Amino acid sequence: MDSNVQQYIPVADVIAKTFGSDVEVVIHDLTIPQNSVVYTINNHVTGRQVGQSFNHLITDVLLSQNFTNDYSANYYFHTDDGRLIKSSTVLIRDHDKKVKGALCINIDTTKITENINWLSSLVPHVPNKLSESTLPFENTNEMDHINEIANDLIDKTIGNKPVDLLRREEKIEMIRFMEQKGVFLIRGTIDRVAEKLNISKVTVYSYIDEIKEKNHKG
User: Fold this and answer.
1) What does the DSSP assignment read for 116-169?
2) Does residue 111 lie in a domain region?
3) Total tally of structural domains belonging to the chain
């Protein structure tokens, strides 16, 4: 585990112990993207396990209009069993300002929602609104940071392997991982991957189409 990431383990513990068992904290080491989860506490909230990869980092954090100053607070997602999770994520950087990891706080809102609904039933005509902004992300400075992070994830995913010796299937598997994690939603990443794998952009697009076709059939 990267030493810059490891130092956040006590922070994760104190958050979870302060706010109780419905609050999960997950620490990612983004120097190992495919197995980025390196620490969890109260992981019954989402079932995150050490050795898994990130899920929402790109789509709900880096590409969110709320992403600023290295964090995105109060975004939502659903677990496989339908529970609504309120989440916040902050990036972890080293002394050279390079992104090394992320700390995520996930709150199971089930009990909160049940209590809100019960209180609302006692006070008729009180609106119960939950809004979520979906405006496009335009901050140029933040996009520079996002591109830097995406490029670093690409570099770490491909690693220092001799790409000319990689089999076609190995390249497709790397592209599959990055496509599933939303890497290609970020502008310029196709070019970066093509350069790193020493293939053309057209080949990258064809691999992505092949992956999507197989997923659709599957």
Assistant:
1) HHHHHHHSTT---------PPP--HHHHHHHHHHHHHHHHHHHTT--GGGS-HH
2) yes
3) 2
